[in-house]
Design a protein that fits this description.
- It is a single chain.
- With about 230 residues, the chain is mostly helical.
- It has a domain of about 150 residues: MetI-like fold, CATH 1.10.3720.
- Helix 3 crosses helix 5, helix 5 packs across helix 7 and helix 6 packs antiparallel against helix 7.
- The longest helix is centred in the C-terminal third of the chain and has 34 residues.
- The chain is flat and about 80 Å long.
- The N and C termini lie far apart (about 60 Å).
């Protein structure tokens, strides 16, 4: 019992030193705010780019299809951290680090999201397209009213998983000087010289966020399956 009491006291002392003293928890809260803001903005840009990329891939113009294919191929073939640094130091050196982060993560996630949307659309039987044409619908109306409503059930869960991955990937924005959640833990560690508690605290916060989102996603998927069975 004395061992566990000493262990508990040690953890409590370390927690107080790292997060309570000098209001260091505010560094964590501010970092969490940056992580949340960056993720939300990047997700919005990602969705826009994914839709645009799929539109270009179905264009009649070969050049438009080529641009979309090159974008997806280059983004998927290079590491996220390299993309972030190139955009920050080479492509857009005069923009704020937050704007660069949004663009970098939006570009990266948009390429993967576009593939998810493409796969979801192609999973719909081609006979559905022919049925739309036989009803006198054009290509656009067939996509909007027949194909996409069926594909969305396959697209949404995978798209949500991609955005959960994006939230975790934002932990590298410390490379361009942003104090996000991960960087906040590193700052506390550099001030208290405690190697464990700040990192463990940050890891727990990330875990709670991701676990909450994955639980909500699992419930959403179960609801979609019930709707399928009812239909």
């Amino acid at each position: 019992m004395e061992f566990f009491a000493d262990l508990f006291n040690g953890i409590a002392t370390s927690f107080t030193m790292n997060f309570i003293n000098e209001s260091r928890y505010l560094i964590i809260l501010n970092g969490l705010k940056i992580t949340f803001s960056l993720s939300v903005c990047a997700i919005g840009l990602s969705l826009a780019l994914a839709c645009l990329t799929n539109f270009l891939r179905r264009s009649r113009w070969r050049f438009a299809r080529w641009v979309a294919a090159v974008y997806v191929d280059v983004i998927r073939g290079t590491p996220m951290v390299v993309q972030l640094l190139i955009i920050y130091f080479v492509v857009l050196p005069n923009l704020s680090n937050f704007t660069v982060g949004v663009i970098a993560f939006g570009l990266n996630s948009g390429a993967y999201a576009s593939e998810i949307i493409r796969a979801g659309i192609e999973s719909v039987d081609r006979g559905q397209t022919e049925a739309g044409r036989s009803l006198g619908l054009g290509a656009r109306d067939t996509m909007i009213h027949i194909i996409f409503p069926q594909a969305i059930k396959n697209i949404l869960p995978a798209l949500a998983n991609e955005f959960i991955v994006l939230i975790k990937e934002t932990s590298i924005v410390g490379y361009i000087g942003m104090i996000d959640l991960a960087k906040a833990g590193d700052i506390i560690r550099s001030r208290t010289y405690a190697p464990y508690m700040p990192l463990i605290g940050v890891a727990v916060i990330y875990y709670v966020i991701i676990k909450t989102l994955t639980t909500l996603l699992a419930r959403f998927e179960r609801r979609l399956k019930r709707m399928d069975r009812q239909n």
